[in-house]
């Protein structure tokens, strides 16, 4: 475990040398600030001029903030893995005690713990929907696992960092699941149930329903297992 933490620290140092990854680390806080400052002012303006309020969609904004926080931070892990593959250091780690799952814990598992903490901070600081603490925890756990799944999807499908940039755009489909929970009528919205973002939308919109939480949790685990197996076959 000590070596796993050491590899995690090496990854942190590598990130400081990459401007794009540093921007991704800061992006959730910038997006949260935009939500906190922009939407209430937009709501006041719309209500004053058009007698229309966007407050019913505030929880959607908070759900989007949680989802994007994990997605953006997971891409940092994915691009770091792809960079190590391009440079050959990833292959080197496979002949050390850090091979296989230990390597993934250092590059995906520990960063996702950091992602969860960042998501909590961002939501607490910039959330505008007055979600309950239980909603934040439940949606945040699914969002964090979604980030891990998306990171594994990118590194298992991409052959290098350039391909990773293109494949990472597929991660935005998860946001589609979140939107379907809000705007697609029943029962058609269940077409998005295979996307973890759909279950985040269910929780922030309707509260913590444990069946929804478990469904989202199991969907994330299924994604993680499938793409992890594919990744380990490639290395």
Number of strands: 0
Query: What gross morphology would you assign?
Result: globular
The main pleated sheet reads as: none
Rounded Rg: 18 Å
How widely separated are the two ends? 21 Å
Structural class given helices, strands, pairing? mainly alpha
Q: Stretches where pLDDT falls below 50 for ≥5 residues?
A: none
Q: Give average pLDDT, whole number.
A: 82
The succession of helices and strands, N to C, reads HHHHHHHHHH
- Assign a percent range to the helix content: over 70%
Provide a count of the helices: 10
Residues in β-strands, percent: under 5%
Oligomer: single chain
Notes on the protein architecture:
With 235 residues, this protein is mainly α. It is 80% helix and 0% strand. The chain is built from ten helices and no strands. Helix 3 packs parallel to helix 6 (133-157), helix 3 runs antiparallel to helix 9 and helix 6 (133-157) packs antiparallel against helix 9. It starts with a helix and ends with a helix.
């Amino acid at each position: 475990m000590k070596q796993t933490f050491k590899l995690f620290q090496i990854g942190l140092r590598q990130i400081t040398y990459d401007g794009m990854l540093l921007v991704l680390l800061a992006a959730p806080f910038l997006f949260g600030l935009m939500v906190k400052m922009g939407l209430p002012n937009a709501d006041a303006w719309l209500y004053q001029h058009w007698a229309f309020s966007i407050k019913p969609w505030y929880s959607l904004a908070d759900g989007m903030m949680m989802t994007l926080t994990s997605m953006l931070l997971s891409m940092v892990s994915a691009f770091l893995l792809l960079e190590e593959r391009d440079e050959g250091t990833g292959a080197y780690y496979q002949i050390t005690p850090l091979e296989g799952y230990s390597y993934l814990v250092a590059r995906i598992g520990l960063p996702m713990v950091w992602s969860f903490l960042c998501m909590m901070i961002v939501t607490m600081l910039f959330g505008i929907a007055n979600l309950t603490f239980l909603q934040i925890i439940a949606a945040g756990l699914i969002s964090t696992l979604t980030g891990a799944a998306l990171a594994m999807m990118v590194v298992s499908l991409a052959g290098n960092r350039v391909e990773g940039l293109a494949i990472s755009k597929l991660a935005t489909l998860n946001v589609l699941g979140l939107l379907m929970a809000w705007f697609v009528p029943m029962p058609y919205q269940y077409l998005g149930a295979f996307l973890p973002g759909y279950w985040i939308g269910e929780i922030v919109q309707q509260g913590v329903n444990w069946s929804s939480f478990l469904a989202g949790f199991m969907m994330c685990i299924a994604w993680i297992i499938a793409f992890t197996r594919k990744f380990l076959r490639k290395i």
